[in-house]
Every structure is written in C-alpha cells, then in structure tokens.
C-alpha cells in the first residue's frame, strides 16, 4: 500500500482471551476462547499514523490500568517493536509514528490472559501495519512469539507462553519453547463447549505463583508428565473420553483453589451436570467447565452466573475454542 494511502488508514487488531494451563498442562498448555453468542472476549488495538507516538485507553476495564500511558504494556510493545525495526536496518526517519488506542475489554488479574491479549493485539497489529506500509512483514510468527513471551514476563515475573501463544495462534497450543519453534498447534474437539466464568475478584499471577509449593513430589511429577503425554496423544487420536479423563490439575489447583470462593461447590455442580472437566483458568479466579453438548454447557453457565460470580464486574460465557487467534481488519 502506498505511503499516501496509509496516512488515513486505521488497522484494528483483535486478540482473544485464553485459558492458561488447561488444568493438566501447567505453563505448557493454552487455549483461545470465543463466545458462541458472538460477543467479544478479548482486547483490541487501533493503529493509525500520527506525528508522534501516543496511546489512548478505552473500554470497560480501562480504569483498572495505570493512568500514565508510559507505563502501559502497549507503549512498551511499541517501543520494543520500533527498536527491533531499527535493528533490522530500517532508518528511524522512515518509520512513521503511530497513535494507538487500546480497547480494554478483559479484566485485570482474571485468569483470562488479559495482559497477553493486550500484548498480542499490539504486536500483531504493529507487525501488520508496518507490513502494509513497507510492503513486507517485518517479523515471523515465531519471532513475534518470542517478543510476546518476553513482554508478558515483565508483567507476571517470568517468561511463559501459555497465554500469548494460543491468543496469537488460536486453538490449543503446546509450548515447545524451542527458539525456532516456541509453540505447537494441537488438534481440538470441535464439539466441545468451554464455559468460562469470571467471578469479578482479582488474583494476581505473582500471588497465585507464590502460593504454590517450591518443590513437587516425585509421584505428582510422574502423574503430571503422564497426563500431558496421554492428553496430547488422545487429541491426535480424537479420543474424547481419554482426553477428558486426563484433565486434572495435580500441580496448582490443590493450592490455588483456596483463593477462589465457591470453587469446590462450582466444580461439584458442574461435574454432576455433565461437565467432562472443570478447572481454574490460568491463575484464576476464572474457572472453566468443558462439556460435549450445548444443553449441559448452558445449564452450567447459568448456575455459575448465579452462584460463582461475586460482583457486578463478573461474567460468564459459553465458548468454543477460537481457532483464528489474533486477527486484523
């Protein structure tokens, strides 16, 4: 696209919410979510050329972010991206500055990959915008993922990809964390529904990690490895019963559930009413229930809405996996 045509062009990047860990895969599994009613469950970033960089923040949860744009993760994404462009040989004078608008639809500390969605939307949007401007894509998906994980680590305290990878690539992803292949896309069960309920309270990733034991027993380590291996194999063989049977968290849930009011009651109701699995999304407080039919999913969704949500910022959605991941328009 010519430079003159880009002057008035706005690109909008969308990045979906995600489930980190997916119960059985601590830091190694992630899944992207898409509500079946068409509502947005993710963050958006608008990008347009400006005289100098600026960031505006809008959306339902905008007031939960630091008021100073300089400390916003989207600003850091922009700064990192521009520096990387310069390191690739682009002259600073040839790189147009942008005005960016973050539409913050995901709550902070929700266990839905809120920071990951902002990071992915920003970096994917930047990559696409400058691809259109310069006529070639600056960075590969894998190169972007490495940067996404690094920036996510600045917020959570450690580099991990189980939110940024599914958010960016879509579907369900397994973290390889190999420099040339950060994440692997896995087969999914298209008939599964994922009820995702955010209670309205906040649980920081750092606090949720602090509550975990510093060491894991040999028995739990073996069970963790077995479950993850069998689950992955079951996905490839499309064995729903075996895959669901593996979805138990022996690493984090026994400790983190104490941070989540009504967790045990919610799990009991869900399992008694057709859920194949029930667990904590990421660090919580969002929980998820997996069902193989819509009727059970809707019943569980209603019960969680009535019983698990703690305040008026909470919400619950019947979802399927978002196989598209981050997109631009």
Automatic annotation (TrEMBL):
Enzyme's top EC category: transferase
Pathway: Amino-acid biosynthesis; L-threonine biosynthesis; L-threonine from L-aspartate: step 4/5
Residues in GHMP kinase C-terminal domain copies: 233-300
EC numbers for this chain: 2.7.1.39
Position of the signal peptide: none
Endoplasmic reticulum as UniProt keyword: no
NCBIfam families, sorted: PRK01212.1-4, thrB
UniProt cross-references to HAMAP family, sorted A to Z: Homoser_kinase
Purpose: Catalyzes the ATP-dependent phosphorylation of L-homoserine to L-homoserine phosphate.
Protein name: Homoserine kinase
The encoding gene: thrB
């Amino acid at each position: 696209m010519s430079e003159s045509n880009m002057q008035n062009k706005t690109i909008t990047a969308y990045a979906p919410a995600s489930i980190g860990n997916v119960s059985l895969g601590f830091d190694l599994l992630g899944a992207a979510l898409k509500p079946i009613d068409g509502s947005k469950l993710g963050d958006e970033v608008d990008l347009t050329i400006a005289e100098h960089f600026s960031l505006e923040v809008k959306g339902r949860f905008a007031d939960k972010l630091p008021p100073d744009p300089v400390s916003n993760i989207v600003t850091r994404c922009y700064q990192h991206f521009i520096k990387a462009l310069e390191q690739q040989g682009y002259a600073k004078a040839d790189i147009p500055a942008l005005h960016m608008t973050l539409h913050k639809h995901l709550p902070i500390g929700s266990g839905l990959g809120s920071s990951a969605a902002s990071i992915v939307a920003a970096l994917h949007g930047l990559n696409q915008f400058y691809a259109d401007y310069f006529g070639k894509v600056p960075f590969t998906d894998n190169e972007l993922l490495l940067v996404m994980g690094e920036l996510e680590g600045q917020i959570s305290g450690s580099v991990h990809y189980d939110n940024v990878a599914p958010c960016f690539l879509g579907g369900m992803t397994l973290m390889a964390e190999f420099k040339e292949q950060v994440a692997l896309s896995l087969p999914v069960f298209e008939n599964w529904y994922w009820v995702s309920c955010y209670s309205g309270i906040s649980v920081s990733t750092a606090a949720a990690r602090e509550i975990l034991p510093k060491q894991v027993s040999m028995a739990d380590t073996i069970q963790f490895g077995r479950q993850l291996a069998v689950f992955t194999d079951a996905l490839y063989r499309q064995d729903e019963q075996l895959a669901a049977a593996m979805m138990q968290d022996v690493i984090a849930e026994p400790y983190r559930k104490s941070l989540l009011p009504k967790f045990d009651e919610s799990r009991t109701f869900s399992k008694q009413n057709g859920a194949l699995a029930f667990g904590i999304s990421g660090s919580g407080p969002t929980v998820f229930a997996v069902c193989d039919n819509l009727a059970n999913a809707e019943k569980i969704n209603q019960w969680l809405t009535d019983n698990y949500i703690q305040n008026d910022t909470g919400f619950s959605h019947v979802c399927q996996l978002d196989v598209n991941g981050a997109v631009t328009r």
